[in-house]
């Protein structure tokens, strides 16, 4: 498992996730489609930003290559589970400065889970599918 506990910003998380895809998911003959990597980086940004803004701070960030994609786990310091975490992914009707993150995560990620951590806080984990780029 690859973990990056030194990540403190969404930009650092995106760079780390991209390096895992490049080094751990891909190989000399296999690379992920660019549009899938863009989706992954959007999910990373939303999850990490939510942890920082709404989860009392980012407590950890893990990226694990898996068959067909990558697994992300974002740890924060809040035990509050967002109401929309398991919603249908409907975008808000009007823009009020926020509200787009969870619908995007729901649309782009799979196997979304929110678990409380024994020492406090929670972990949001997701699977983001990646397809192999054409040769």
From TrEMBL:
SUPFAM superfamilies: ATPase domain of HSP90 chaperone/DNA topoisomerase II/histidine kinase (SSF55874). Gene3D superfamilies: Histidine kinase-like ATPase, C-terminal domain (3.30.565.10). It comes from the Bacteria. Keywords: Kinase, Serine/threonine-protein kinase, Transferase. Pfam families: HATPase_c_2. This is Histidine kinase/HSP90-like ATPase domain-containing protein. It comes from Streptomyces resistomycificus. Residues 6-124 form the Histidine kinase/HSP90-like ATPase domain.
């Amino acid at each position: 498992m690859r973990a990056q506990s030194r990540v403190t910003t969404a930009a650092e998380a995106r760079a780390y996730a991209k390096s895992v895809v490049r080094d751990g998911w891909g190989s000399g003959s296999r690379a992920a489609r660019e549009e899938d990597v863009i989706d992954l980086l959007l999910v990373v940004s939303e999850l990490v930003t939510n942890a920082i803004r709404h989860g009392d701070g980012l407590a950890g960030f893990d990226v694990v290559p898996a068959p067909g994609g990558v697994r992300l786990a974002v740890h924060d310091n809040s035990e509050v589970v967002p109401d929309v975490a398991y919603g249908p992914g409907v975008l808000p009707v009007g823009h009020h400065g926020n509200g787009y993150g969870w619908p995007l995560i729901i649309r782009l990620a799979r196997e979304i889970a929110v678990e409380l951590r024994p020492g406090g806080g929670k972990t949001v984990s997701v699977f983001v599918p990646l397809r192999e780029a054409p040769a």
